[in-house]
Each structure stands twice: as C-alpha cells, then as structure tokens.
Design brief:
Blueprint (H helix, E strand, L loop, with lengths): L6 H6 L1 H14 L7 H13 L4 H16 L7 H13 L14 E7 L5 H14 L4 E5 L7 H12 L2 E3 L7 H14 L4 E5 L8 H17 L6 E7 L6 H12 L3 E5 L9 H9 L3 E5 L7 E3 L2 H8 L3
Parallel strand pairs: 1-4, 1-5, 2-3, 2-4, 5-6, 6-7
Antiparallel strand pairs: 7-8
Helix pairs in contact: 2-3, 3-4, 4-5, 5-12, 6-7, 8-9, 10-11
Enzyme class: hydrolase
Function: Involved in targeting and insertion of nascent membrane proteins into the cytoplasmic membrane. Acts as a receptor for the complex formed by the signal recognition particle (SRP) and the ribosome-nascent chain (RNC).
Pfam families: SRP54 (PF00448), SRP54_N (PF02881)
C-alpha cells in the first residue's frame, strides 16, 4: 500500500525504476520458470545494479521455490518479496538517547552531499519540534565551515565552529559542552569529508567519535554515513571502510533522483547490515525523507 509514499520519492525513483522496468516486464504474467527465464532474470537484476551476491541469491531462491512449488502464482510477487527481505524489517527510526542530547555523527566523502544532508536532517528534526545544535568539525576543507554556517542561518539553528584548520576534536568537545549546558535535544556533528583511503583523516574521524563518547554517555547514538546513490556499487567500498572506523548505524542515500543505480541499496544492506534510514531526492531543505523498504520495492514495480 503506497498512499503514504510521497510524490518526491516516486519522482526520485524514476531513473532507477526505468532500469527495473526490464525486470518488471520479464516477470509480469510469468508463471513458469525455466533456465532461459532465470538467465534473463539474472541479467536484468545485474543491469539494475542489485549486485552479484544479491542477484545470485534471488535467482537461486526463485529456482528452488519453483521446484518446491512454493511459487503458486506469478513470479513477480515472489521476486518482490525476496527484494523486501533483502532490505530487512528493522526499525529505521533515529535511535534516541534516554537523556538529552541525542548525538548524531555524520560521515562521508566530499561530494556525497554530506553538508546538504546535515541541513536537511536538521530541518527534519526541527519540524518534529526538536532543538538542534550543529557542530562544524569539517575544519580541513576550505569553505566547509562557512557553508554549514549559511545553512544554520537559513534554518535558525545554532552552530559551534572555529576557524579553518582548527582541531576538529576540539570543536566536537565544545559542541558537546554547549549541547549539555543549554539543553539541546539533538547535536549533529559534521566531520571532514574524506576518501575512505585517507588513513590520517579516518584517524581524525575516530578521534571525534572518541571525544563525543567521553563527553556524553552512549554517544554518538547514531553514526550516519552519507553515500551518493549515483556511485552505485562503488559506494560499498566507502561504507565498508567507514564502518570499520566508526561503526556506522545507518545510511543517508543522496541524489537518488539523479541515478539509475538505486539498486545498490540491496547490496549495501546485504553485505554490511546497514539500513538506509533516509533518502535525498532533491536540493531543497524538505527533500530528505525516511526510507521504507516495502514502499521502495513496490514503487519500483508500479506501472
């Protein structure tokens, strides 16, 4: 049932849906499974960027289910169910701390949409009545602090910052102290956009994580990794390395409206166990929405 699914999400999925149309056309009305069908299903799932492991699992499940007479109707409904199961059914809501503030650490590479996603997330939380503080710990990249400051001003949101080149862990420390002293509901901590191969910057990310953990019990309560949907399977290597450094709890998938590679969601979830919690489907502050796997799969197969 898709009545809650926004038009923004539907529109944002247009390119990915276009690729999945090949899977849709193959499955529609199909009640019989043979090797030619399985080969074609495998090819079209690959083209949809579902990934090797997930594709192999789905094809084998279809093969076995048909042998076991588990498929009693159209194959399409069975494949949709397999895709939903790949995404899991765990709670995708923000993990709130029992006491204020809840700390959300944001990680990701430059160009992934990290800074914009922070602004969108802050707006989403403000709309829920939360008092939000931003910590500008991306002190390595030129203009990063200024960009986040502009967003904070537009949102009417407080921000803790220092000059470019300052110690990012020190900024995180100051932000934690202010968040506790002034009763903020949420502290969102930006971190330096970095390639997952840049060891020294990954170490800085670990330092920020450790500082936050010392200052606020149980923090960070969420570590959200921002991934660019247009990179498809290449996002997997980033996710693996970031998870090793800071134990990510979820993903914000950006630029979903600009790619046909949304199928990478399945591989990321299967290999890393990380749920996609939010998706970005545009450039406006309201263009960040909670991710629902059932609606996502159903929308891919809408006529």
């Amino acid at each position: 049932m898709l009545r809650w699914l926004s038009q923004k999400i539907r529109s944002g999925l247009a390119k990915t849906k276009g690729v999945f149309a090949g899977v849709f056309d193959l499955l529609r009305g199909k009640g019989k499974v043979d090797q030619a069908f399985l080969d074609e299903l495998e090819k079209r799932l690959y083209l949809a960027d579902v990934g090797t492991q997930a594709t192999t699992q789905i094809v084998e499940r279809v093969r076995q289910a048909f042998r076991d007479k588990e498929i009693t109707g159209e194959v399409e409904a069975f494949v949709q169910q397999q895709l939903r199961e790949l995404l899991g059914n765990e709670d995708r809501g923000i993990r709130w701390s029992a006491t204020r503030p809840t700390v959300i650490l944001i990680a990701g590479v430059n160009g992934s949409g990290k800074t914009t996603s922070i602004a969108k997330l802050a707006k989403y939380l403000q709309d829920q009545g939360k008092k939000v503080l931003l910590a500008a710990c991306d002190t390595f990249r030129a203009a990063a602090v200024e960009q986040l400051t502009v967003w904070a001003q537009r949102l009417g949101c407080d921000i803790v910052k220092q000059q470019q080149g300052a110690n990012p862990a020190a900024v995180a420390f100051d932000a934690c102290e202010r968040a506790k002293a002034r009763g903020y509901d949420v502290l969102i901590v930006d971190t330096a956009g970095r390639l997952h191969t840049q060891t020294h910057l990954m170490k800085e990310l670990e330092k920020i994580h450790n500082v936050v953990a010392r200052q606020i019990p149980g923090a960070p309560h969420e570590v959200l990794l921002v991934l660019d949907a247009t990179t498809g399977q290449n996002a997997l290597a980033q996710a693996e390395q970031f998870s090793k450094s800071v134990h990510c709890t979820g993903i914000i998938l950006t630029k979903l409206d600009g790619t046909a590679k949304g199928g990478a969601i399945f591989t990321i979830k299967q290999k890393l166990g990380l749920p996609v919690k939010f998706v970005g489907v545009g450039e406006q502050l309201d263009d960040l929405e909670p991710f629902d796997p059932e609606a996502f799969v159903a929308a891919l197969f809408e006529k």
